[in-house]
Design goal:
This protein is mostly beta strands. The chain has three helices and 15 strands. A four-stranded antiparallel β-sheet has the order 1-2-3-4, with no helix packed on it. It has a four-stranded antiparallel β-sheet with strand order 5-6-7-8, with no helix packed on it. It starts with a helix and ends in a 6-residue tail after the last strand.
Length: 226
């Protein structure tokens, strides 16, 4: 009975919203996949659609032009929302998408930056140390891709970048000692309090005792917001 009601409601929703969001032969998909639209402040939208053969993410501009940003085929459709495009966050002129390379544990997520007006991809942001949903301090923080002795701060409203020093060789050396792959896993969850960014990290100085040591990074973001 529950499945029948779900199918009926999905058909009604599809007719009303003009969305392709149903697979009658696989009713479980109607509960797994949400086709709810995210409406940006500029009137653009991003949402999912699906049928029995695939699922996909659509960007729809304010002028109703549609663009498929990502899709999963029939064999992977049940992983919708857990593989590939997972979540998105709006900023002043852009939005970022959380991208899952695998559906389970434990690789860090990657992120992609898109223009909020056209849906065009601006950049591959890579793995994050931290991202802020605070529109006053809209920073995406990463380990610098050329030198692991720096943290890189990208302002998602202005696309301006500044960098700060990390203790020389500390992150790289720790990965060698622990046979680690992702430097991002050495960092705790960061926070912004009164315009000051804080984040803790762990490291090792040698591989003999394998004792974890801890440090903290503090950055006054007010100095960098223009």
């Amino acid at each position: 009975m529950k499945i029948a009601v779900t199918i009926i409601l999905s058909i009604i929703s599809q007719l009303c919203l003009g969305q392709n969001c149903i697979c009658i032969t696989r009713p479980e998909l109607n509960e797994i996949i949400s086709c709810e639209k995210t409406i940006f402040k500029n009137g653009a939208k991003i949402y999912r659609e699906f049928n029995c053969d695939s699922s996909w993410v659509i960007f729809e501009s304010e002028s109703k032009k549609k663009k498929i940003l990502f899709s999963l085929d029939k064999d992977l459709i049940e992983l919708t929302g857990r593989l590939g495009f997972a979540n998105w966050i709006e900023y002043k002129n852009s939005f970022i998408v959380e991208y899952h390379n695998v559906s389970g544990c434990c690789d860090p997520y990657e992120f992609k930056l898109f223009d909020k007006t056209s849906g065009k991809k601006i950049a591959e942001l890579g793995r994050e140390i931290y991202h802020s949903e605070n529109q006053k301090y809209p920073y995406f923080v990463t380990i610098d891709n050329k030198n692991s002795n720096f943290l890189s701060f990208l302002n998602l409203n202005t696309n301006k970048i500044f960098k700060i020093n990390l203790p020389n060789g500390k992150i790289e050396n720790t990965l060698k000692i622990t046979n680690g792959i992702f430097s991002e896993t050495l960092f705790d969850e960061g926070q912004i309090i009164n315009g000051v960014f804080e984040i803790k990290y762990k490291y090792m100085e040698n591989g003999k005792d394998k004792k974890w040591l801890f440090g903290k990074i503090t950055v006054d973001l007010k100095k960098y917001v223009s």
